[in-house]
Amino acid sequence: MSENVTPTVTVLTRKARQGSDRPSLFRLLLRDRVAAVAAAILCLVVLAAIFGPILLGDLAQRQDLATRNLPPLSFAHGWEYVLGSDSLGRSLFARIVAATGTTLGVAVSAVVVSALVGSIWGMWAGFHRGWRETVSMRIADVIMSFPSLLLAVVILYVFNPSAANIVLVLAITRIPIYLRTARADAAELRSRMFVDAARNFGTKQGTIVFRHIVPNVLPTLVTLATLELCYVMLAESSLSFLGIGIQPPDVSWGLMVAQGRQYLADAWWQSVLPGVAIVVTTVSANVLAAWLRLATDPGQRWRLQQKKRRRRLIATAGARG
Amino acid sequence: MWTYLRKRILQSALPLVAVVLGVFVLARLTGDPSKLYLPLNATEQMRADFAERNGLDRPIWEQMGDYFLGVLRLDFGESLRTGENAASMVLRAFPATLQLAGVTMLLAIVIAVVIGSWAALKPNGIADRIVSFFSMVAAAVPDFWFAILGIWIFAITLGWLPTSGVDGGAAVWVLPIATLMLRPVGVLAQIVRGSMVTVMGQPYVKVARSRGAGELRVVTHHALRNAAAPALTVAGDLTVSMVNGAVIVETIFGWPGIGKLMIDSILQRDFAVLQAAVLITALAIFALNIIIDLGYALLDPRVRPASGSRRSSRPGAHAEAGTGAERRNENGTEKKAAAHV
Amino acid sequence: MTISSPRRTTARIAAGVASVAALGMLASCSVANSESAGGGSSSDDTLRVVLQQEPPTLEACDANLTSTGVVDRSTITEPLIERNPTSGELEPLLSTEWEQTGDTEWTFTMREGVTFQDGTPFDAEAAAHSIDRAVNGDLGCDVEGYIFGETDLGVEAVDATTLVVTTPEPDPILPLKLSFIEIVSPETSADEMVREPIGTGPYAIDEWQAGTSITLARNDDYWGDAPAFANVEYQWRSEGSVRAAMVTSGEADIALGLSPEDGIGDLGVSYPNNETIALRFSGQTAPLDDIRVRQAINYAIDREGIVSSLYPDGDVVAAQLVPEGIVGHNPDLEPWPYEPDEATALIEEAKADGVPVDTKIIMPVRTAQFPKVSELGEVLREQLSQVGLDVELRMVDTTQHLQYQTAPFVTDEGPIAMLIQHGNQAGDAQFSVEQYMLTGAAQAEFGDPELDALIEEAAKTTGDERQAAYEEVFAFERENVVALAPIAHQTAMLGLSDRVSYEPNSSTGDELRIKEVSPAE
How far apart, in whole angstroms, are the C-alpha atoms of residue B133 and residue B140? Predict the structure, then answer.
C-alpha cells in the first residue's frame, strides 16, 4: 500500500475536473446574467476604490460655499455636479467616488482580518478539541457580550481616531462569528471518514488540516465573509451616526449617510445616494458570493452547469419529487 | 439535561467576570470624568474632592476589588450623572429593550419563514427572485436612515403614525419594530429559503408527497421542522446582537432602553451605570445562548446532549454542506453559526 | 407509527415555551405603555415640551446647567431676583427690593404671602438656607463653581422679611449673581443633592418617569398670576428632525434646539441666544505664541461667508466674545476683515523670523455641539490651510473637548486652536472676561498683565463707568492680545405649534419660563 492514498471523494472530483464538458469559472459566470452584473458592479467599485482618490481626491475636498446643496443634474455649475453637491459645495459625485476607497478599505480590511484570525483560530480549536475548544468558545462568548460601542469609544479616544483603529474595533467584534463556524465545521469534519482514513495512513496533522479540512470549510467561510462585508459597512455607518466613526476631513459612505440625515427634508440626495452605493455594493457582493458558493462546491456545481431551461426543470423536478 | 445546564452555567461564570473586568478597565481608560461633572472653573481642590468622593483616585486594583465586593452585596454603585442607584436605572431600562427585541424577533421569524418557504417552493422562479432580491436589500439598508425616512413619510407626511416615544398605544411600536426588523428578516428569509430548497429535495419529502400529503402539510410538518435548525441558530445570534445594540433605534425613537442608557453612560463616563448595564446585558446574552442551545436540542433529537451516539455516515446526510444544516459534536450542542450569519 | 409521538411532545414543549415567553413579554408591557394613560397628547390643558436630552437632575443648585435650568428656573423654583433678558434689567421676584447698605453688604426685602409647594411659608430664613446651601456648603453645586468660585457669602435673616448678605470683597453685581440661586424649601436637605426640588414656582413636580417624561402640575397656591396651562409635560429626543416632527405632527407644542434643516418650516422661530463661537488659542505654544500668527488666523477666516452660507437665519458676525445686549459689549469694535493675503504675509513674516509656522495645529471641535458644527470645522480648517497653516481637525466628544477647554489644559499635543461656544447667561461681561481672558482663569490658556489690570479694575465699577471699562477691555484684547478669534454670535431656533404663543428671548435655552407661554388666540 502506498503512503499517500488519496481518498475516494478527491479521486472522483479530479476525474470530473478533467472532463472536457466542464466550462471554466468565467464561462459559468457569463451564463448567469444576474451574477455577471453583480461581478461587473463590484469590479467598478474596486476600480473606483483604487483610482478614485487619485483622480477625484482634490475635487472631493474642494469647498465652495456658493454652490451648496445643489440638487443632482445641476450641470449649470459644472459637470461634476451630476449628483449634486453637499452642504459645503463639494461635488457629491467626487465625494462618493473618493469615499469608495475608505469605505471599502475599512470594510474589506476588517472582514479579512476577522476572517483570517477567526477561521484559523476556529479550525485549530475544532481540530484539537478538548480544553482548547472550550476555552476558545468561552473567549468567543466574552467578545460577543462585550459592548462594541465602548470598545469603539475607548480605542478612538485613547489612541488616535483613525481608519486603522476603526478596522481594529470592527475586526475584533466580528471574530467570534468565524471562530464558531470554523470550529464547528472543523470539529465535524475531523470525525469524518476520509480524515480518519488519512490519519490512519499516518498523514501529518498539518497536511490533514490543509488538504482536507480547509477546502471543505472554505466555501462556508467565504459566504460568511461576504455577508459580513455588508454588516461591517453598516456598522461603520452606525458608528458615524453616533459620532465615533470615520472623522472629517476623511470621508466614507457611512459618514456621508450619517451627516446627510440632517438634510433629508431639503437635500435628500446627500444621504440617499451614498446609501444607495452601500446597498448596491453589498447586494452585488451577496449575489456574487451565493453564486461562488455554488460554483466552488463540487457537490453543488452541477446546478450551474446546466443550460438555463434544463436548470429550471431540474430544480422544479427536485422540488416536486 | 440538568448536568448540561449546570455545566454551561459554571462555564459562563468566568467569561462574565472577564467581561465586567474588561469594561471596568476600558471605561477608566477613557479619561477623567471630573471635568464633565464639576463646574468649568472648578479648582484643583474640588477635583481632588470629586475624585476622592467617587473612589477614582485609588489604584485600579483597589477600585476593582471594591466593586466586586459591592456586586456580591448587590450594590452596583451610583450614577455620577444623576446620583441614582445604578442598578435601578439599569433594571428600569432593560425590560424596554427586551420587549422591543423580543417582539421584533418573533415577527421577523414568522415573516421570514413564510416568505422564505414561499420562495423555496419554486427555486429560481419569480417569487424566489423577488424574495431574494428584497431580502438582500433589506439586510443592506442603514437602520437610522430607514428610521428617519419612516418618520418623515409615515408620521409627518401621512400622519398615520406617531413620530416617536413610548406613549400612544400600539402605534408607537410600528416604526421602531419595522426598523429593527429589516436586517433580521432579510438575513433569515435567505437562510430559510436556502434550507427549505435543500430539504424539499430530500427523499422523505418525495415519499410524503407520493403518499398523498397536501402541499401545506408537506411544507409545515415535514420540511420546516428540519429546516428550522439553522434558522434558529441565526435567529439566536441576531437576538443576541439586538439586545446589545438596539442603540440607534432607541436613540432616534426615544425608547428608554438599555442601548440608549449604555451609549449615554459611555459618552458621559458614567462608570457605575455602564458597568451595571454591561453586566446585565452579558448575563442576558449568556442565558439566551444557553436557552437557544437547549431549544436546539429539543427540536432535533439527533443533537441532544444526552444521546452521545454518532450520526450515521449516510452519504445523503453529509451532502447538505452548502446550506448550513446543523452540525453536532460529541460534546453536546455547541451549535454552528450557519452559513449566512 | 411511534415516530410521531416524541415529535409531538417536542412540538408541544416548543409551543409551550414560546407562548410563555410571549405572555411574559406582553405582561410586562407596562414599561412601554405607561400608567399615565391620559398622559400627554390628549389633554388640551397640557403644554408639551420636547428637549434635547433628559435633565440629569432637577437639583436647584445646579440650575445654571442648561439641561437642568431649562425645566427648573422660574417654573418650579424661583430666585430672589430675576434678570429680564431683553432689557437686561433686574426685576424683583421673591425679593421686592434691595439696596447696597455697606461696602460689602446688601440688604434684601422678602416678598410676603409666598408659600413653598410643600406648604412651608417663605421667609428670609428660607432664603438664607437656600443661599447657604448652594454657595457655602459641601455639595459641589454647579452654581457655586460657576458664579461664586471660592468665595463664601455671609447670610443673615434679620427678621422674617429682611435678609442681609455680606461679601468678602465689594461686589457691585451681587444681585445679578443672586439671580442664579433658586430658592428651595427649608425642608430640603443641606447634606445631599435632591433630584426633585420643592420651590415656590407656578408649577410643582407631579411625576418624573425616568427615561420617559417629566410632568409638572399647576401650583394653585402660587403667589403670582395663575399660569395658563394646568400641566406641563417634558419629553426628550436627541434627533433634531424628530423634535421638529413632533411639533409639525401635533405631538408637542414647543421644541428646543432646532435648526432650519430639521424641517420645521413655518413653525420655526429664530432668536438670538447668548452664544458666541470663537477659536481659542494656546498662546504658550509655538507658533501660536507669536501674535502675528494669531492675527493671521483672524484674517484668514471668512466670517461673512460662513454666516451667510451656513447660518443665514440670523447669526451675526462677531467682533468680541459677548453679543449686543450684554453689559460691556463694545459696539464700536469692527469684526476682523477677511484678508487672506494679509494673513499669508503675516505668516511669511513670522516664518522669516524663525517662528515654526509649519507645526501642525490641532483644532478640537465638539461633535454635535450646535447645528452644522462639523461643517464649520471643515470650513475653518480649509480656510486656515489656504493661508499656509497646517491644521488638523479633530472631532471629539464632550468629555474629550473639556480636557482641552478647561484647566489643566492639554499641553503635550502641540499648538491648539479649539472651537469654543460661550454663552453669557448673566448679561454682564465680567463673567465672560474673567473666564477667558484673565491670566490663570479656568478657560484662559495665557494672559497679559496689562489686560489683567484692566479687568480687575473694571470689576469694581458700576453703571456707565462699568460699560466703558469693559469696552476698553475688549478693545485692548483685540489690539494687543488676540487670545481668541471670535466668529459669530449665534441664533437658536424654537419650534412652536399653532396651539401656543410665546416670544423666545436670549435666555429661552437656559430657562424656559412656562409662565410666559400662553394658549394661542
Answer: 11
